[in-house]
Design goal:
2% of the residues lie in helices and 50% in strands. The protein is mainly β and 191 residues long.
Length: 191
């Protein structure tokens, strides 16, 4: 990560022009520039602990204000080590940061005008020791995991696909209740 800037001069013998180029390098996968007037789909394949999760993000036309997309507006995805995120109430199968950048500058906690759709497809191995019926997407608000503003649209457990809508960007985690087994043993009382 970092920023580098260089200048260049071009001449054809008669005309000369100079310019400056600034390159911002961020960790993660950057989308193509977002066009505010068009629908856009970003597919991030082979993610997660087992490289079996695909994250598909659909941005409807108008979700990004024209003034934000007038310059170079991109989304950057970066997977996060989910073992570092667990707390006493959440175990995570998958975690990632999704951030917006305008002209290479992070737009922290970016919110869309209209919700975007996120579809996660996963493998059963991604939910090891987790109850698939309780899978939910959470976001980190800086002090705790929240679900405000994340709407579950559809969960197809037969095809391992879950669809959410959300309107802001930050760190996200896919969590589920852990599977617990209760063992009942008879109590034998000897006379």
């Amino acid at each position: 990560t970092g920023t580098t800037t260089f200048s260049y001069t071009i001449s054809d013998g008669a005309l000369t022009d100079s310019g400056t180029v600034t390159i911002v390098v961020t960790g993660g996968v950057a989308s193509d520039p977002v066009d505010a007037g068009s629908d856009m789909e970003i597919v991030i394949p082979e993610t997660g602990t087992h490289d079996t999760i695909t994250n598909t993000i659909q941005i409807p036309a108008g979700a990004v204000p024209a003034e934000d997309a007038a310059d170079v507006f991109t989304l950057v995805y970066r997977e996060v080590d989910n073992t570092e995120l667990a707390d006493e109430t959440h175990a995570f199968a998958y975690a990632f940061d999704l951030d917006a950048y305008q002209n290479g500058t992070l737009l922290a906690d970016y919110s869309f005008v209209e919700p975007i759709t996120m579809t996660l497809t996963y493998d059963d191995s991604d939910l090891k020791d987790m109850d698939e019926s309780s899978v939910a997407l959470y976001y980190w608000d800086g002090s705790q995991w929240q679900q405000d503003g994340i709407v579950l649209v559809h969960h197809d457990m037969d095809n391992n696909e879950i669809v959410f809508t959300l309107a802001h960007l930050t760190r996200f985690g896919l969590s589920a209740d852990t599977t617990t087994f209760e063992l009942f043993l008879p109590v034998v009382i000897a006379p």
